[in-house]
Predict the structure.
Amino acid sequence: MRRLRGIGVGTAILIAVVGFFAWEIYDKGWVLFFTLLVNGLTLGSVYALIALGYTMVYGILKLLNFAHGDVYMIGAFIGFGVLTALGGSLAPEINVWLLIALMFAVSMLGSGGLGVVIERFAYRRLREAPRIAPLISALGVSFLLQNSALILFGSQYRDYDTFDLVGFGGINIHGVFIWKIRILVVAAAVALMIVLTLFVARTNLGKAMRATSFDREAAAMMGVDVDRVISSTFFIGSALAGAAGVMFGLAFGQIYHFMGFLAGLKGFTAAVVGGIGSIPGAMLGGILVGSAESFAQGYANGNWSDLIVFGILIVFMLVRPTGLLGTRAIQKV
Amino acid sequence: MADKPPTTEQPDQPRIGVDSWVASSDERIEGIRGARGVALGAFEHTPPPFRLAAFVALAATLPLFLSSGNLFRYGFFTLVYIMLGLGLNVVVGFAGLLDLGYVAFYGIGAYTYAILSSDLHGIHWPAEVTIPIAIIVSAVLGLTLGLSSRRLLGDYLAIVTLFFGQAFVTFANNANPKGLTGGANGIGNIDNISIFGYTLTTTKQYYYFILGGFVVVFAALWSLVRSRIGRSWMALREDPLAAQLMSIPVNRLKLLAFMFGAGIAGLTGAIVAPALTGVAPGNFDTSILITIYAVVILGGAGSLMGVVIGAIVINVSYELLTPATPDRARWLFYGILILAMLWKVRPWPKLITLVVTTVALGYGIHAIATATSDTATSGAVNTGGFLTGAIHSYVVIPKNPGRLPDYGYVLLIAMILVLTTVKGWWRVALLAPTLYLAAFVWENLLIQQPSVTRLILFGALLVALMNIRPQGLLGTARVEIV
């Protein structure tokens, strides 16, 4: 009975969504649809990378790391710093490909290091504390990072100016214009995710991570260095967030000190929608959230797009808290 | 004399399985000695109604020696933060639910009052009608948000409530200028509180009005937390499963906690809106949320007196750190540094070494900087008052600092983090340059933007408190039994 009702609700939602898109495509045409879709995919891969950090940390520590969005923001600023130091996108001093690779590398290292420091000083002592303590600590770290960025970088927007990067124009497919840099961004996100999946599945450290996430105490008894595993998790998750920050800068241009707050929330939404703890789920969730935001901006009033994304999250949490690809966790007491 | 057996327990954590009364016996014997013991004993032996009465009596004399503007900033807003903290304390401190949308209820109360008593929609209802309506609207919305807590636990609840707060700001921001909430500009020209024909006009009257509100809320909460409901909340906070097994209606109590917290926030909002004569969406964003959390956490979640003390400390430092009064901000900053040094650096040889090293280091660096460059120490002190001379000859203030203060800031954070990992004389050795660097960064960077600085400090305060003393100033330490 419950299952039947679930299928009924699912079908109704599907029909409503398809109907909405059919009407909008009929009304506004295919070009807008595909433009928004490309936009949504780009945005979605950024959210997916943020979601991965949430998922990994949540899987191991059961901690909602509010500061993750701000690590992403710092990553974007590090990338911008590298870009500016090497001449800016209008007159880069080195090969463009090398420049982009360098931006990613420095930003990922810097954000990863920041993540490790945050874990070491803000969360490590609180592992056995009541659940609310690390959450409040995370909230404090988030504020500290946001306002430190404000006082260091100022409140103005910074522009990556990537549309002027040498050799990066766009291509035109039947009226749908796609910036090449966006293709690069999506490809980089997919590549990072494949590397991460292989890493978690094949290496010893990946195995230790899975073991720690399954049962920390048992893993420690089997000789897993839990502190090291948690530090590595924070490093990898934060490095991915840093990469996401650079990607956002490359694909959308403007970065500012407050960008991490909403992006972090949306990344978390993506993690929940995809099913927390699942790496392909994070990708799927990211693309869903990114597309939802993009279509909401294109078809409805842009101001309300955040609310639509949050609405999706709340529905998912209430109706299917395990997400699309997650498995139901049994809570031991 | 046998050595004590090695202990695996953390010294600053309560021991699991040991009766806390027995475990803290040494502490209590220590506690009753000296002047501090006498004061604490006197405090503990005063019946709570007298404590409240003493506080109110003190607070009531405040208007006698504060100017109207200072009364509003220091007196009125301290009471506002006390009330907000008391409401949040119900949800976070007693029921143990992390509500990050709390500031929205404050906003909803303020907006409800503003919509029902302003020129925007031409409605001018009296306050005896609008204030209850504001409370009811907030409480009902709190109930609605609380409904999600039936299915969501811990972190998921936190994120949904955070969205709720965000949704409120988005909603208030995006109405038309003539729409329900007045859009991004908010609502101006709100009527003064007019209750049963008596209209409040001066700051003093508003101050006494909110003081009355505080007494009512505090007394109500004080008796509530000692009632069956309050005890059930605490049982719920400690262990929801065990509470449920003891046939405590867990879901109903969660909803009640949300309703109570939201109602108190709504009441506060409805008093603040007319006092400010205007509301805007920006008044209810996450920076207020972090301030309220700092109030509750500093005082100790679950302690009513703690909230009062936390609110006084936080609001007074918040108001001292305003762009208008860099002098007072400076007093606060150096005062806290010196007090912390006197309190924490023991024994006295270390303290004296530290003071001598810091002073010598400062003058040394200053002399070197002056000798090497003309402009290195010729920057202007940001309106230093009578400390100007001392600062100018001690802290290096370059004329064109460039990015130097920014690097100093990052270095300062790194040094503070390293400080927490070293012990003994190493710490003293590292503390001296850190203190000097702190003074340098403060004079060259932080004091230029106090409104950002205070949020940085509150964020750091939350992290530090959670790591050093999670129970706050007056809370009791808790052990989560797993």
